User: What shape does this take?
Amino acid sequence: MNWEQTSASPVSPERPVVVVGGGPVGMTAAATLAGAGLPVVLLDLNTEPQPDWRASTFHAATLEMLETIDITEQMHAEGLVVPTYQFRDRRDGLIAEFDFRLLSDETRYPYRLQLNQQHLVRMLFERLQRDDHVQVRFGTRLDGLQVTPDGATLRVSGPDGDADLLASYVIGADGPRSAVRNALGVGFEGFTYPERFAITSTSVDLQELLPDLGHVNYVADPQEWLFILRTPESWRVVWPVPGDLSPEEASDPGRLQRQLQQVAPYRAGYPIVNHQVYNVHQRVADSFRIGPVLLAGDAAHINSPIGGVGLNSGIHDAMDGAVRIARIVHEDADADAELVAYDRIRRTVAVEYVQADTQRNTDRLRETDDVVRRQHHEDMRAIAADPLRARAYIRRVSLLESVRRFGIGRPPTEIDLGGVA
Assistant: This one.
């Protein structure tokens, strides 16, 4: 079969849409498909939803999209609204502050909503458990995947043993080590940062120790940059870990205490709520679609967390793919045109927005050349001081620009794909 040509596959309980991955991206895809009345099977290797708290930012466009599955209001009930964020220098203090309220005439959500991703997973899991269109199978491993003329066949193993699962379409949202992507043989080009990132949470209110601190702060420094942000539960600090430091050394309680004391002295000592050390990559899959199989989220692209757009763009992938599949089924839309549009648009957004901006953000924080560093500071001051430039800047970094440019699930006939890779 030519994988670039796909006729519409019939969706039925016997041949549902299969979503691989039970994180926020996979569950968003499943909820969107179920909302369109399509039968869905959600598979995840873990035996229960995972309490991963690493991602915590939801931008305006994402909050608008999540309204369609009726989850945004619940997120606000538990989340923290943050209308501004700061770009700072560890030596010089505040450099520039950016105000999302400049977007008030364009979105109902002119701010970042801070909410640990595990809470969205919990909300979505509760939703899916109540939905008759969805079958959730945790503790299930994908052992193989084969594209067929009428969809795909997944080889899975779980509590009931090995089985073949027939699918009309597949959405692979199973993370950076994606079994779906690997089964398809799709490359995942890019690089891994030489340093790892450490993320540490504390219950101490850093704003009491640093009164001019914002709720979201990017702090440049040539020796040790910082990313400091507030979530409903705690304050978080992210810093780079030298490549020659072992995970055990990087996580040593004494070292964590020294790191936090350098952020702001606190005589009583910082209580540590959570701590992780992890590798950081900038990678994009060679293709986001093979036949009836779509890749979404970290399975398709992974990036530096500096900017808070990785999870957001993954949710955008999920909803775009789900809307297109629903239109193929319900409106007899051209399957190949829809899935080609998904591949080209979502990969373009990953490369031109997510990868480009997070790399630029990370480089700006860790710049070692003092002349270049000072120029970065002047540039950020100039942008923040000009309302038109500031609006354009935050419109882009919040992914609102990319969504207005391409839409989510917008029909291919309404999109100018000229120049889109």
